[in-house]
Model the fold of this input.
Amino acid sequence: MGNPFEAEGNWYKGALHLHSKNSDGELSVEELIHLYRMHEYDFLAVTDHNVVTNTSHFSTHSLLTILGVELDLGRTQNGEKYHLVALDIPRDFNFPSSDSTPQEAVNLIRSNGGEAILAHPYWSGLTTNDLLSVSGYLGLEIFNTSCLLEINRGLSLVHWDDLLTSGRKVFGFAVDDAHFRINDALGGWIMVKSPNLTKESIMNGIRKGHFYSSCGPRFSDFKFSKETVSVGCSDVNSIGFNCGPARGKRIKAQGGVPLTFGELKLTGKERYIRVECKDKHGNSAWLNPLMLDST
Done:
């Protein structure tokens, strides 16, 4: 992870997994974009199933749209399909064939200049072997609003830690996957540090890991040295440092006084560091991982 708090630019709020009436969503593209615009989102991707919904003409100086699509293909160990969210693809994206493997789909997305995100691992029942059998994806959905509200399978943090423990550097994304049949909008987003609100700049920030994911809390700082790691954040009840098997630390607010700072002293045995903070409402925010050489 590049440190977004040391990068130049501003913070921009974005939603990267949304569905319109062009596939199985309940809102038109116009209604969807109006909703997120009214809630002060800066960028979004409409990722309808197996169709590229053209949103380019909705982009303005204050709201950027990124072309995307959700693909389902292949078979997992449990016989389910993989779901991939493809971002920053061309309008005339040449879809993979019905018998393509997830790896072939990831390769195709990247050869078209896009990026692949592995969608809702917990909802899909993905195993660690499933996750490791595919490479080249930028990250995975660690929080999915729709999957959480519909069947309580929206958090994929263990999947993330399994990959990180295996040495895979992958980013974590919070998304809505909103279909608007239930109240599954505006629940999970990413905050990207970027010099400006252009597709090239936002996608460059995402590729570098210059973002964090959230359902509510905000991060304000991140510092790292050989001895310590520290974070600043909005008022929260706990700050957790995940550092690999049997490594890490959790700090809990005491006496009703919220936390706005947390620090971890390093032992030199950490494999990676990722930080999660949780507020009094149970909402979390997640920093992308810092990969370390463990001993």
